[in-house]
Amino acid sequence: MASICRCGNAIHPVRIKLNYTTCVQCSTTEAYGCAPIINHKTGNSIQIMSQSQAKAIRKASRRKGYGTCLR
Q: Model pTM?
């Protein structure tokens, strides 16, 4: 298996061992994202999901007018 990607970058040995044929930059797989799950003051956790889903949740949960009123 070739250790050079089609873009000319070297493919990491671990990716070669896992039978990947592209470098990380050429990969079409979307990176993971997360959204906070707030159960209580100290019982927080995160939900792992795609970055596009996490971005949509962040946008939907934004608070309008949150912050200072001194502008």
A: 0.52
